[in-house]
């Protein structure tokens, strides 16, 4: 039985890279049936591709050992032609044909894969939350998070970006900051489970390193900006614009 707790629903040759992204986004979309309502089911892990994005400064072996999925794609920004930062995870979706994608950050070990697979629903983003911390739950009351383990159909991010693009540009800042990470789940149907994670320790907790996104000056203000923007777009879509 799933322990599911529903939460009410920031390169080189930049122009070339953006053009490349457009073709990769199209390649990532597969036909999806919108007529049948979502049905809860325990997902076969072989149908899932785990996509990991990294700066290249973390030993991913401990994470890889925990993944039960049929395929793994690593987007190492230090080795790829273009440094897409966190958006590399979306670019990497074009490198698999698996119908379902798994995301997590490179600073933690996720242990709730069984619960995620049980909670999976077609056309729904299922995300894992760290804990029951009330301020965090309130901040993300109508969405879910991706970095502590998430499952979703491969086309969902690009459907959300297409909707967002009707109102605001899909620009470099949107992709390489917190924009895409916030807009994707906010403009999708979501479900949250609260199973926690273990912090990856490599000469100290990786999440505490100075180069982590949440450690950067202004990160909280950026988060709040994108949450407000995403909610605005969602509400405008709901109103029929």
In short:
The chain is of the alpha/beta class and 241 residues long. 32% of the residues lie in helices and 16% in strands.
Biggest sheet strand line-up: 2-1-3-6-5-7
Amino-to-carboxy terminus distance: 40 Å
Question: Class in CATH?
Answer: Alpha Beta
- Overall average pLDDT: 87
Task: Characterize the structure shown.
The protein is of the alpha/beta class. It has a single domain (14-238), classed as Spore Coat Polysaccharide Biosynthesis Protein SpsA, Chain A (Alpha-Beta Complex). Helix content is 32%, strand content 16%. The protein contains nine helices and eight strands. It has helices spanning 14-28, 61-64, 88-91, 113-119, 134-139, 156-164, 172-176, 179-186, 219-238, and strands spanning 48-54, 71-76, 100-104, 108-109, 124-129, 150-153, 189-194, 198-199. A six-stranded mixed beta sheet has the order 2-1-3-6-5-7. The protein has a two-stranded antiparallel ribbon with strand order 4-8. Strand 1 (48-54), helix 2 and strand 2 (71-76) form a beta-alpha-beta unit.
Describe the protein's topology.
Blueprint: H1 14-28, E1 48-54, H2 61-64, E2 71-76, H3 88-91, E3 100-104, E4 108-109, H4 113-119, E5 124-129, H5 134-139, E6 150-153, H6 156-164, H7 172-176, H8 179-186, E7 189-194, E8 198-199, H9 219-238
Parallel strand pairs: 1-2, 1-3, 5-7
Antiparallel strand pairs: 3-6, 4-8, 5-6
Helix pairs in contact: 6-8, 8-9
What descriptive keywords fit this protein?
globular; two-stranded antiparallel ribbon; 9 helices; single chain; disordered N terminus; 241 residues
């Amino acid at each position: 039985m799933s322990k599911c707790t529903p939460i009410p629903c920031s390169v080189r040759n930049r122009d070339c890279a953006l053009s490349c992204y457009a073709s990769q986004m199209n390649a990532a979309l597969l036909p999806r049936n919108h007529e049948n309502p979502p049905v809860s089911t325990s997902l076969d892990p072989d149908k899932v591709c785990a996509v990991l994005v990294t700066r290249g400064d973390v030993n991913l072996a401990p994470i890889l050992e925990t993944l039960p999925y049929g395929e793994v794609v690593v987007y190492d920004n230090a080795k790829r032609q273009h440094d897409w930062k966190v958006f590399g995870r979306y670019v990497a979706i074009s490198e698999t044909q698996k119908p379902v994608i798994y995301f997590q950050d490179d600073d933690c070990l996720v242990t709730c894969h069984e619960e995620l697979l049980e909670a999976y629903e077609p056309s729904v983003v299922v995300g894992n939350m760290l804990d029951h911390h009330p301020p965090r739950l309130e901040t993300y009351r109508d969405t879910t998070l991706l970095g502590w383990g998430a499952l979703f159909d491969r086309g969902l991010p690009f459907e959300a970006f297409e909707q967002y693009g009707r109102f605001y540009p899909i620009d470099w800042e949107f992709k390489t900051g917190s924009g895409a990470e916030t807009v994707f789940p906010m403009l999708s149907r979501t479900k949250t489970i609260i199973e926690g994670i273990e912090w990856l320790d490599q000469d100290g907790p990786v999440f505490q390193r100075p180069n982590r996104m949440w450690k950067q000056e202004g990160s909280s203000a950026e988060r709040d900006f994108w949450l407000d923007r995403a909610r605005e777009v969602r509400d405008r879509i709901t109103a029929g614009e």
